[in-house]
C-alpha cells in the first residue's frame, strides 16, 4: 500500500469524540468515577475536576488567587487523561478548554452529583454551573445528579441512564450548540425506574433558617438549615417525575431574560 493511500485512509477515519468530565464533589468522589465508567468507549475521556468538594459554589470563578492543575493517575487506566484543579467547577471547564485540551471538546459532562439538582437547586449547583459554563462556550453539556447524598450511594442506575442520554446527544448532529441538560435520577434500583421524562423545572424553593450556636469563646456562629417546599403540582415537572420514579431531563439555558415579562412591560411602561 502506498504512503499516499494510507494517509488518505487515515484522514478519512471519523474523528473520535472528546468527552470532558468534571463535577463539584471533587475528583475523588464515587460519582465522577461512575460517570467515567458509564461513558467508556464513547470517545476520548478527559477529566478535569476540583481537588476538594465544591458543592453549592454556583457559577463562582477564582479571581483573587492563582490556580493549579495537577495530572493524576486514573485508577490505573492510561486511556483517561485526568487532572485535579484547585479551583471551582467553572474554573475546571475554563482551564480544561484553554490549557488541557487546547480546543473545545465534543461534549462536557458534569457529575454524577451526590444529591438532587432538580428545581431551584440548579441555581446553587456547582455541578450544573460547570455544564452551563460549557454551554456558554458552545459545547453541548449535561449535568447528572443522583438523589442520594450517601458516600456509599449506588450509582448503577444513574450510570445506566447517563450512557443512554450521552449516546443520544453525541449521535445527534443537529442539536443546538448551546444545549445544556439537567438530568436527575431517582434513588431506586434500575429495574424500578419507569423511563426518561422531558420536564420543566418545578416552581419550588427552600424555607430556610439559620441555627444559631455559641462557640467555646462565647462567639456566635450559624448553620444554614431548610426544608424544600414545592409549589408546583403539575405533572410535567422534574419534581413530579422523580417522585414517580422517572429520570428527569430539563433543558436549561444561561440566558436569564424573562421574555414574557419583557414583552408585557414593554407594552405597559412608556419611558
In short:
It contains eight helices and eleven strands.
Descriptive account of the structure:
Strands 3-4-2-1-5-6-7-11-8 form a nine-stranded mixed beta sheet, with helices on both faces. With 271 residues, it is α/β, with parallel strands linked by helices. It has a single domain (15-201, 234-256), classed as Survival protein SurE-like phosphatase/nucleotidase (Stationary-phase Survival Protein Sure Homolog, Chain: A, 3-Layer(aba) Sandwich). Residues 4-12 have low confidence and may be disordered. α2 (30-38) packs across α6 (156-171). The termini are far apart. It is globular, with a radius of gyration of 21 Å. A hairpin with a 5-residue loop joins β9 and β10 (220-230). The protein has eight helices and eleven strands.
Rounded to an integer, what's the Rg over CA atoms? 21 Å
Alpha plus pi helix count = 8
Question: Runs with pLDDT <50, length 5+?
Answer: 4-12
Taken in chain order, the helices and strands follow as HEHEEEHEHHEHEEEEHEH
Helix and strand composition category: alpha/beta
Topology:
Layout (H helix, E strand, L loop, with lengths): L2 H10 L5 E5 L7 H9 L5 E7 L18 E4 L8 E5 L3 H13 L5 E8 L6 H4 L1 H11 L4 E6 L9 H16 L8 E6 L9 E4 L5 E11 L5 E11 L7 H6 L2 E6 L7 H10 L3
Parallel strand pairs: 1-2, 1-5, 2-4, 5-6, 6-7, 8-11
Antiparallel strand pairs: 3-4, 7-11, 9-10
